[in-house]
Structure formats: structure tokens, C-alpha cells
């Protein structure tokens, strides 16, 4: 049985990845989920798998070398999938130190622990792989239509968040080059889907619209992002682990470029389409709620990933177009209103905090 160490598995993308892996491999794998349970870590995301014999949760900070070393000593880890990161740009502007601590030093601790556990006199044990999950934001901003981010695009980060991720990417690259460490890096575009924390654009707009609250839009709303449905991302990560060439970087994009204001209009139109007649929330959902606010500092104008390499080498491509993905996402939020209430009220932290503290 192959054993995966998933860092940040209680977060949005990490928890979706864990669900995807159990759907695909069931009892053929074991997953050790390590998460510090900061505000974005929510073990309610994993209620459906928490009682599995082949799933283990460990509350630990990836910066805690002793705790991470203990995990490598206790379990024969075959694969590391490293999601754990501080990831909200606004928070990085207010408190950049936390981002450097977690994203840079935490990555270094993981690399050193994996290296120590896997290294032999002749190199590294067969079958061991480390996958570092990064972001397209490390590339900076695209100014012209028709331009795309490629794996060869120079790094040009513009926020403390993207700078910390760029730094962690470089540390992983240095281990690949210096030690021939068995790692890959993936840089993905904006994810959306179930379990996303409602400070992010799409769940924020869905939640606010259903309550008749203002829908904040930075600047003129014309900043462009490439949107990737989270299940497609999970599939890409698994395929890179299985088929990717050691040492390579793979860009994962959704072919769903849209302006932020377009996203908001699509969400509102889709809510009106999906809400049944007679539902009182239909009267709350209105484009009059759209409110333009002061632009974010260092706000990149456009991101767009060209996933040509991963398609050519590995055979992955995004299967979920935005029109379908946003319906799946809204349907999930309709069916999981209690989850959203627990997150927005802070109740999601109470039970598990008491359990693990």
C-alpha cells in the first residue's frame, strides 16, 4: 500500500485532493494528512473520510521539524503532496512575515525531512516523490491578450504571497539541482469548487448574493484570472505524481479566462437560474448589489496559463468548463448550507480545536 503525506489537507484544495484520491484508489493507498488547523483548515471538509482505516490526521505545523521528522519515522512515506501554505493575498499584504514563515521555511523543513528519510548512499529510494503545489502568481502579470504563462516564463512576483511562493519554488528547484532530489513543481491557476473558504471571490459572491449583501469588486473589475475546477486540479496532481518526469515543472491551467466582473455576473445569472420559483432568496439576488471598492495593492492585471506541456507529456487537460463547474459549485453550496454557516460563524473551529488542543 502506497503511503501519501498530504500537507494542508484540511484546506480547500488539499481536502478535495484527498476525496479525489480515495474515490480513485479506495483502499489501495494510505493518506497521512498534516495540517496546523489555522483559520483556513477545516476538518469538516473531511468528515466523509475521517473514519477510514487508511486515513490518519496529524495536527502539526510544517515548520515544526521535530513533528515532521516523527511522521517520516513512524510511516514509510512514499509520496509527499505539499499544499500547506498561507494563500490569501490580502492577508499577505497585512502580515507578510507569516507567509514567509509558512511558505518558505515550512517548505524547507519538509524537504529536509523527506531528504533525510529517503536518501541512500546511491541517491534516493526507488518510488519516492515530492510534489510541491505552487501558483501562477509567481509569474507576475500579463499585460497583453494572447500572452500566456509557460514553465519557462521568468518569475516576477508582485505581492508578499506570490513572492513567498516563488521563494519556496526556488528552494525546491535547488534541491532538485543540488541533490537530484525526486521532486516536481506544479503551478496552477485560480481554483474553485466545494469547500472553498468564503474569503475567496467565488464563494464570497455566492454567499453574499444569497443573503442580499454587497458584492465587493476591486478596482474596475476587469482583472482577468484563469479558473480551474478543483477536481481537475486534483486529477492533474495525481497524474504528475504518476507520469511526470522527475525534476520538471508543470503548469496547470483551466482554459477559463474571465474578468472578475464577468465571474460575478455569471454567478448571479446562474443563481437565478438554479433557485426554484418561490424561494425567497430569488428576491435577494440582484446585480444592484455589485459594489466597486478601492483596488488591491499590487493587483496583477491578468493571469493565463498555457498547459501545453502537461497535456503533451502526461495527457492531462481541463475537463470542466466554467459554465458546468460553477453550477456544480453552486449546487454543492445549496446542499451544504450548514458547512457555510459553520465557517462564517467560526463554529467549524470549535469541535476540532477542542479535540486536538
UniProtKB/TrEMBL annotation:
GO process annotations (BP): nucleotide-sugar metabolic process
Pfam families given in the database record: GDP_Man_Dehyd
CDD domains: dTDP_GD_SDR_e
Domain of life where this protein originates: Bacteria
UniProt-listed InterPro entries: dTDP_Gluc_deHydtase (IPR005888), NAD(P)-bd_dom (IPR016040), NAD(P)-bd_dom_sf (IPR036291)
All copies of domain NAD(P)-binding, residue ranges: 5-327
Catalytic activity: dTDP-alpha-D-glucose = dTDP-4-dehydro-6-deoxy-alpha-D-glucose + H2O
One MF annotation (Gene Ontology) recorded for this entry: dTDP-glucose 4,6-dehydratase activity
Keyword vocabulary terms for this entry: Lyase, NAD
Cofactor(s) the protein requires to work: NAD(+)
E.C. code: 4.2.1.46
Similarity remark: Belongs to the NAD(P)-dependent epimerase/dehydratase family. dTDP-glucose dehydratase subfamily.
NCBIfam families in alphabetical order: dTDP_gluc_dehyt
Record-given protein name: dTDP-glucose 4,6-dehydratase
Organism (species): Anaerosacchariphilus polymeriproducens
The gene coding this protein: rfbB
